[in-house]
Write a structure and sequence with these properties.
The chain is of the alpha+beta class. Among the domains are: 5-146, no CATH class; 265-403, Jelly Rolls (Sandwich), CATH 2.60.120.260. The chain contains 15 helices and ten strands. It has helices at residues 10-17, 21-28, 41-63, 69-88, 93-112, 116-122, 125-145, 148-170, 174-187, 195-204, 208-214, 221-233, 237-250, 255-262, 380-383; strands spanning 270-272, 283-286, 290-292, 295-309, 319-325, 334-338, 343-346, 353-358, 368-374, 396-402. Strands 1, 2, 3, 4, 5, 6, 7, 8, 9 and 10 form a ten-stranded antiparallel beta sheet that branches. It is elongated.
């Protein structure tokens, strides 16, 4: 029995409160976890600087004898409650917001006085000692918690190499990209978001097994997605199914959109949708993988796309086969566009059936097929009293093939 166990981590947690949050997220954590931290850098770094100034200025204002005593009692009790909640449970930015808001109120008073607040302390040496001592104590906590100069210097070096690597990858200079991604990893070995593009760079050079060895699927959801896609390319469908289906179900971001936009995939003339997410990288706008009588499919969620880099260019006279079913009531037809061309209308039957669509002759020679689908949706939970399905469904798609 440990009655004081809830208090075991109070001191480490208290130290963790006094941190530069954006610097922590950007340069300390092992991944961005899908957040656009690099794009937000100007605001993020400015916010940390503002937080630092407001925190120290707020502490001065809170303890200064010139500020209202009665209101300080109320604020002080609220701060004690907020700190106690954080220390007993755990630190999250949302839990700290009341603390920074209240300190910022007093910080605005201190900053509005310029250096005038110092004169008010000269007549009360004991209060001055309390103010200066508290500020010094928090400063020591902040300085000793992290070696921020080293962290920032290392992080800037990492991001410099990452930027150079991304530019090299975009122009298909994979040798330079590999060198720069490895340099980024050397600068910050724990940053798993460097491993993902490095693996893609190695795969682009035909070094798939080496690319797979770079990734640890458990490190992040994107690591799991790319590891699954590389396993699929290597012919290891068992591993690919396990990784991809798990990540797609649990991912907090649109895994279909991210893979389609960021992960190059192998060319093909046909695609079966679903199959435990083996179709990731080719689709967007579909529900999860399902089975009906051993037939793999996905529901179209109103609007979606199937994008196939082709083994062979489109030729005059080619057609597309779409295997569809529409068992739910539809208020209009399915609209299909091939590579941005004219809309073709389909009214799928409730049972599975393959529909043939002629490819416009103007598309002959193109090496990518982009099939845009759009159909009215049906919300089972709203339309059927016994249903708890909240998805906006339209048609079931099993396969697309170029003939």
């Amino acid at each position: 029995v440990e009655p004081l166990r809830p208090l075991r981590n109070v001191w480490p947690t208290f130290r963790h409160v006094w941190k530069a949050q954006y610097v922590e997220d950007f340069w300390v954590k092992s991944s961005f976890f899908t957040r656009p931290l690099r794009e937000a850098a100007p605001l993020g770094l400015a916010s940390d600087l503002f937080w630092l100034v407001a925190t120290f200025a707020g502490l001065i204002g809170l303890l200064h004898p010139a500020t209202d005593r009665a209101f300080k009692v109320l604020i002080g009790l609220w701060l004690v409650y907020s700190f106690a909640t954080v220390l007993v449970f755990h630190v999250e930015p949302r839990y700290l917001l009341p603390i920074w808001l209240l300190l910022a109120l007093y910080g605005s008073w201190t900053l509005s006085r310029s250096l005038g607040w110092i004169a008010g302390l000269r007549r009360q040496p004991w209060r001055a000692a309390l103010v200066y001592g508290s500020v010094l104590a928090i400063a020591v906590l902040f300085i000793t918690y992290r070696d921020y100069p080293t962290i920032i210097a290392r992080g800037v070096q990492r991001d410099w190499h990452m930027r150079s690597a991304d530019q090299a990858f975009a122009r298909a200079d994979y040798v330079t990209a590999e060198q720069e991604y490895r340099a980024a990893l050397k600068a910050d070995p724990q940053f798993v978001d460097s491993e993902i593009p490095l693996a893609l760079t190695l795969n682009a050079q035909g070094r798939t097994e080496e690319a797979r060895s770079v990734l640890k699927p458990e490190d992040s959801r994107r690591s799991g997605i790319v590891a699954g896609l590389l396993s699929r390319d290597a012919g290891d469908e068992t591993t690919a199914r396990t990784l991809l289906s798990t990540v797609e179900q649990r991912s907090g971001e649109d895994a279909q959109r991210w893979t389609l936009d960021h992960v190059p995939v192998q060319p093909r003339q046909a695609l079966v949708l679903g199959q435990d997410a083996l179709d990731l990288g080719y689709i967007v706008g579909f529900a999860g993988s399902e089975l009906a009588a051993d037939l793999s499919y996905r529901w179209l969620l109103g609007e979606g796309e199937i994008v196939l880099p082709l083994d062979a260019p489109l030729a005059a006279g080619d057609s597309i086969g779409l295997t569809l079913a529409a068992p739910l009531p539809m208020k209009g037809p399915l609209q299909v566009r091939i590579n941005g061309g004219p809309i073709q209308l389909l009214r799928p039957d409730p049972q599975w059936r393959e529909y043939r669509l002629a490819i416009p002759s103007a598309l002959a020679g193109q090496t990518k097929l982009r099939l845009s689908l759009s159909a009215p949706t049906y919300l089972p939970m709203r339309e059927e009293a016994e249903s708890d399905d909240p998805r906006s469904l339209s048609v079931m798609v099993h396969r697309v093939v170029v003939y």
